[in-house]
């Protein structure tokens, strides 16, 4: 995935979907933030914000926050919409070995008993169908990556749905898409959401496959290329 980007300096993030920044020419403006999470460690005042620009004249905020560059020089993709796009590219390119060679990749397919939509439904005439849920990981504490970064009732629901799929004898997969350059392994944040941790253990027992893959960012003065490149360890 290639993005055309410009940089700014973060003043503050607020109201979840908005942030104030200082552009390179010194102008102060508000940009859109496509992230509903806490963004802990990803939105510190003074960090560098890399943003894209929309050509849609109807948008109130034409700039969108795509990447954070921290004072420790870590790169973080904070636009959570990009996680599924990156995973789709990786699936198509057969980078995710556990899910390689599926002829059909469908997005947002309705399923389950709680009115859910699975991120991806993979099918092939020669393989077992896969229900694939994707979660983006950006929380780094010390040298350890964690998910979630806040209590996630939505994530809990998705785990219940995956557990039900696995109990029916079908293939259910939870994929952690790591979008933080400083994260080298993923651990469930029991100290953030104990219920999610309990459900992860239940999911593993039920046969839900839990994997983690990391994205890398290559940045130039005006663009960034982001792609999922490698599997990393997931600690349950």
Topology of this structure?
Layout: E1 2-4, E2 6-14, E3 18-23, E4 28-32, E5 48-53, E6 63-69, E7 75-77, H1 81-92, E8 104-111, E9 116-124, E10 127-137, E11 139-141, E12 144-147, H2 153-167, E13 171-178, E14 185-188, H3 194-206, E15 209-219, E16 223-235
Parallel strand pairs: 10-13, 12-14, 13-15, 14-16
Antiparallel strand pairs: 1-16, 2-3, 2-5, 3-4, 5-6, 6-7, 8-9, 9-10, 11-12, 15-16
* Helix content percent band: 10-25%
For the CA atoms, what is the radius of gyration? 18 Å
Number of domains: 2
Low-confidence stretches: none
Beta-strand percent range? over 45%
Shape: globular
**Under the CATH scheme, which architecture of the largest domain would be assigned?**
3-Layer(aba) Sandwich
Q: What is the structural class?
A: alpha+beta
Main beta sheet:
10 strands, mixed
How many strand units?
A: 16
Question: What's the CATH C level of the largest domain?
Answer: Alpha Beta
CATH topology of the largest domain: Trna Endonuclease, Chain: A, domain 1
- In N-to-C order, the SSE pattern is EEEEEEEHEEEEEHEEHEE
- Mean pLDDT, to the nearest integer, reads 95
Oligomerization status of the protein chains = single chain
Ends distance: 30 Å
Number of H/I helices: 3
What are the key terms here?
236 residues; alpha+beta; OB fold (Dihydrolipoamide Acetyltransferase, E2P); Trna Endonuclease, Chain: A, domain 1; ten-stranded mixed β-sheet; six-stranded antiparallel β-sheet; 16 strands; 17% helix; 47% strand; globular
